[in-house]
Amino acid sequence: MIQLPAPKAVIFDMDGTLVDNMHFHHDAWMKFIHEKKLNIDADTFERDYHKGTLIEVMQRFFPHLKTEEELRKVGDEKEALFREMYRPHIKPIEGLMTFLTHLKKAKIPFGLATMGDKNNMKMTLEGLGVSESFHSTTSGDLVTYGKPHPEIFITAAQKLNTAPSDCLAFEDTQSGITSARAAGMQVVGVATQFTESELLELGCIHAISEYTGFWFAE
User: How many other C-beta atoms can be found within 10 angstroms of the C-beta atom of residue 29?
Assistant: First the structure.
């Protein structure tokens, strides 16, 4: 059994960390790009556009849109596509539910720090049946700067009344790992986007492919 020192609090990313769903996001982005006739291929999108908050991505797509309201409206179209595609397929990464139960029994508070918007967060947490389990949630529409900026993890730690250095983050992406580490947290990588060895190279202290068997040293 994997064992690390118990943290004072745990902060989870959502997409790719609680659920293995990033391919649904990719498909939704590609459909959105096609419908908007943006003429951007997948590699270019990932390299040049897919960074930060939803508003920041939309600013890159549509520089002629000047207000946050306009940008959020068009961004909501992409998120609605994602929810339509993903809703029937929501399921937790193996072992997650048992791990959350163990955290509750150990009285270790846990929060959520996702760049997904509040509607995506609500759908996913309700689909998993854990809406009431998290001590705090922070979605991407509540922060100014997206990952890899540390704002969202700092905010999540503040909501748990815990210093970031006393929190353990669970993340699956390079931008998320960078964000959590910049906030002062150690990170356990979840291998949905990268291999476990790649996650260690990105700075994670440990990497898992599922939560089964994961717990902390007594």
Answer: 20
Architecture of the domain delimited by 2-21+90-217: 3-Layer(aba) Sandwich (3.40)
Host H or E run for residue 191: none
Q: Which residues pair with 207 in a beta bridge?
A: 189
b or e along 162-201 (b: 16 or more beta carbons within 10 Å of the residue's beta carbon)? bebeebbbbbbbbbbbbbbbbbbbbbbbbbbbbeeeebee
40-72 pLDDT per residue, tens: 999 999 999 998 889 999 999 999 998 999 999
CA gap 163, 84 in Å, rounded: 37
Residue with tokens 């291998």: 191
Q: What is the DSSP letter of 145?
A: S
Distance of CA 78 to the CA centre of its chain: 17
Q: Say which residue the tokens 């700075």 belong to.
A: 203
Q: Residue ranges of the domains in the chain?
A: 2-21+90-217, 23-88
What is the spatial distance between Cα 61 and Cα 33, in angstroms, rounded to a whole number?
9
pLDDT in the model for residue 69: 95
Q: How many CB atoms lie within 10 A of CB 217?
A: 9
Provide the Cα torsion 42, 44, 50, 51; round to 10°. Answer: 160
pLDDT at 1 over 80: no
